[in-house]
């Protein structure tokens, strides 16, 4: 029996036909439900209560400018299945963690060499999006071998790669990884939100679609990576909830059912339901149901000449939108963020980070501001007096040089099954509130 045949048998319980594209089908449980513009009255009421709690307890300043934008806050509520107190606890833990590890300083001062080392090891943006405008990432696991991880951790532990302090609890090597999450939420998602050539352009982009290539990875390599991947997944899930839309696992070897048995224990069933293990005969048709062929790498049956490790390939659709500056023709490596210019009519991409200790602060390009996120009004009590907050519109993820407004979001969603994380986030085994998705769990079924 061949490896391809064995990999294909993993999905016999869930053929590609069950992976429905929400790009063209608005179902009762699929995207964009549970996102702004498509909230039910019950969900919107829960969000108002959640935001009110955050403001009254001093974790969020409503502004203007607001300290956190509404799409960011909504991620925590979705992750906690609309349970306000659970969402509050996770948000508070994240804010404490961010302060303890100077995440803002880390992102703005990280050495470009350190950032690039992380970028080449972990999921990378292709420069393209799926049919709904969600950014498409690719991750080739074989590059993350035992030697590269050991070197990565060693460099992180023995060098000063930013001006940020650390809580001493989060592995310093992994802190560089979170600069990539910041890039996802502070640069990529706001950029994709402004691109209106997508289905549901009224919905701010807050998630990512991922192709995970496990071809060429042996059981020993999976085993050696287990602890590293588990710690990274736990931290990401706890502090960057709800930016995962789908993961398509490609090239699964015959023993992958064993590996899947480890992995699925790190996530709850809702997260597991977003992971699809594809046999070789399913890859092209399934990816095309979510992604236009021109945006799928050639390696996976598409038309995009993309190889793992390179920087994002600009989309032809950007030509009339992106105005490049300072010699740039694509987005460079390193920390990037957006700030409003021209009285909020346009947005500028600014490159941060440092090279040999010298800060980089350079404009990369500008784009028209085509989308604003409406801020939902709440009433808060100050000294027993109820006041109404002002309604403002802010671009998702926008940060100005003299403002504290930021968008810190995520990778993966919902809770882990780790006892430690459950205790920290005060999660019990009960299903509190409404589940955000009840899609079938093909990978879990196949691995059982």
Automatic annotation (TrEMBL):
InterPro entries: CRAL-TRIO_dom (IPR001251), CRAL-TRIO_dom_sf (IPR036865), CRAL/TRIO_N_dom (IPR011074), CRAL/TRIO_N_dom_sf (IPR036273), PI/PC_transfer (IPR051026). It comes from the Eukaryota. CDD domains: SEC14 (cd00170). Residues 421-435 have a biased composition (Basic and acidic residues). Residues 384-448 are annotated as: Disordered. Residues 114-308 form the CRAL-TRIO domain. Pfam families: CRAL_TRIO (PF00650), CRAL_TRIO_N (PF03765). It comes from Cylindrodendrum hubeiense. SUPFAM superfamilies: CRAL/TRIO domain, CRAL/TRIO N-terminal domain. This is CRAL-TRIO domain-containing protein.
